[in-house]
Amino acid sequence: MYCEYAHSMGFSVRKEHLSYWIHTRIIKCRAFCCAKAGLKRVRPSPKKYRKLETRTGCLACIYFTTDTEGRNWTVTKFVEEHNHPLAMENEQHLLRSARSISKMQGSLIKNLTDAGVKTVHAYNFLSNEVGGFENVGFSKSDAYNFVQREKKALIERGDSLSLLKILQEKQLEDNMFSYDVRTDELSRLTSFFWMDGQSKIDYDCYGDVVIFDTTYRLNKYNLACAPFIAVNNHWQNVFVGGAFISEESIDSFCWVFNTFLKFVGGKLPTTIFTDQDQAMAVAIERVFTGTRHRLCQWHISKKAPSKVPCFNNEKTVRGLFYQCMSKCDSELEFDRYWNEMISRGNLQENRWLGDLHRARRNWSTAFNKDVLDLGILSTQRSESANNGLHGCSKATSTLVECFMGLEKLVGSWRRGERDEDFRCKQGAVSLKVRSCAMLKHVSKFYTSKMFVRFEQAFMEGAAGVCVVDETRHDEDNYLYVTKLCDGSDDKRWFVSYNSKTNETACSCRGFETRGILCKHILRIYNLKNLREIPPVYLLKRFCRDAKKGIYLPNTPGIIECNSNLIFRNHLMRFAYDLANRVENSKDAKAHVLGRLHVLANEADEIVEAVEMRRRGLSDENDKNTPLVRDPVKKKPKGISNARLKGYWETGSKKPSKTINLLKIVITLIN
């Protein structure tokens, strides 16, 4: 009541004296005063920014007293006069006690900022909705302070303990969620790893080829982000586990890999791609025994011009190097091109190429034709996750912010996967050759993205591959020799075919490495007029129902509202539609209101029971959670928090070398 009076008059209110009746919590006296009441002590402040003095010693106030039961309130003192000018009508929305952020406004600001919208833009959106800044109910600085309070609330118990609390809450929500942390001798957090239920399902379906990289350090503790990335049936990234580690050592990588295997039941990936990190290579050899370790060709090709100078001006030598990287079908072919490159470029003494040749089995495709790699040559998919995290973290980001940022990125990937699943279910792929029975058969099996890859190989085989020779060994077995029709390459590919079982094999080993039949085999199938692809050559990981039998989707008809704002909007729309349907019937309105009261009471009981259960589990977790301290704060290399200097500030005051040289020349002439 007093606040409404004060705001209409043009001054702000502050709480003052408060007393209780003896041995009770019943208010006896409550006082409110003008916000300019009293005077502050004048203290010298070394800070550059000093707040304005707003206290003027104003005596305006109001005192309330109550009876012993606290029911009847009586005004016992009221001072109306002020010793300062009052706010104008168009300034009253700036009064401190008149500004507050409601629960709905706070929820909207939080949802917008979580979605990547800047705070100032969220504030502008609210002002447009209510018809101006004066009608919002709070100022722009209040919005910034609210966002900062929300961020601090996430780490109120300390960064590491707040992160552990979030991980424990996720474990309560998801029974398949797993995590582990690692500390040093001072109980400081050094590494943590997590994997949710969806990641375990994705790894079970698509975990044959995994990409692992640690190329991103941007947080206040300089921890490296180390995600495990796989490729799904839509040729999209899927997150199958992640870690943050303080140091890239053999011991740290061994801990990450052992934890990963523990959470996936010991199932090893067929192939893992990494960069040229020696500690990572040793850890993979120790933990991922039986997994083929491949190096990123992009990193190698990026280093090549600086390590081998002749690559910059001799295209033939450089072309031979790239031929060795990914265009050789056998080890003999690799050796032939490699020796030719060495002799043409006189590179016998190049130490970098010598080291690269010794590790050729880890980077050249010629030595990995017997294992599945999906045709992947680099770790760019993992680095795309790091680039995505760059947008939601910075050098001062906390562990909680980095974790939530990566979770948000993973959520966007999973939304993209659901969108592609929907597109595949609701539509059919248009065929380039509509009368082709084989394409019709495959289009019903593959997803749209994978069908496009298969169709490209089919068309290249039909139009670009010629059969040079045919040899019949017996009644069922044939051997075909194929080449490119345009004559751009004299290479020959040998395809064996069994007419009884339709089993085939090609010397390029395209199916063994990419999981899709190569154009040479498809040319032979086309020659033999096969109408369907044998089931053994259709991998389930690429089909539309790759997760069938493993993953059960949400129950139809139930809307999953993870956001409070979305739930409120959905519920309000539902209630509005219901009100429109019953507004003309008195009995229907009475029935709806009665049922709503019953539902409200039942909902309160459910919420109270869930809160008590959560509080009990939270207390139990607090007792069982070990004391984990925050990691040591480190500044990332190359990152500075200092103000960037302007153009004139960066100008060198020392004379340049050219000016000094001119002075010397002039002196010699004179």
- What is the oligomer described by this structure? single chain
Main pleated sheet: 8 strands, mixed
Radius of gyration: 35 Å
Give the termini distance in whole angstroms.
Answer: 92 Å
Organism: Platanthera zijinensis
Keywords: Metal-binding, Zinc, Zinc-finger
Region (Disordered): 618-637
Protein name: Protein FAR1-RELATED SEQUENCE 7
Keywords:
670 residues, eight-stranded mixed sheet, alpha+beta, single chain, four-stranded antiparallel sheet
Could you walk me through the main structural features you see in this protein, from its secondary elements to its overall organization?
This protein has 670 residues and is of the alpha+beta class. Strands 5, 6, 7, 8, 9, 10, 11 and 12 form an eight-stranded mixed beta sheet that branches. α2 (103-114) packs across α3 (119-130) and α10 (315-326) runs antiparallel to α11 (331-345). The longest helix is centred in the last third of the chain and has 39 residues, at 586-624. Helices cover 43% and strands 15% of the residues. The chain is built from 21 helices and 16 strands. One of its GO terms (molecular function) is zinc ion binding. Keywords: Metal-binding, Zinc, Zinc-finger.
Helices and strands, with pairings:
Blueprint lengths: L1 H8 L3 E8 L6 E8 L26 E6 L6 E7 L23 H12 L4 H12 L9 H15 L4 H15 L4 E6 L5 E7 L1 H10 L2 E4 L3 E2 L6 E8 L5 E9 L4 H14 L7 E4 L3 H10 L4 E4 L1 H11 L7 H12 L4 H15 L5 H8 L21 H11 L8 H28 L10 H7 L4 H17 E8 L4 E8 L8 E6 L5 E3 L3 H5 L4 H9 L36 H19 L3 H39 L32 H13 L1
Parallel strand pairs: 7-11, 11-12
Antiparallel strand pairs: 1-2, 2-3, 3-4, 5-6, 6-10, 7-9, 8-9, 9-10, 13-14, 14-15, 15-16
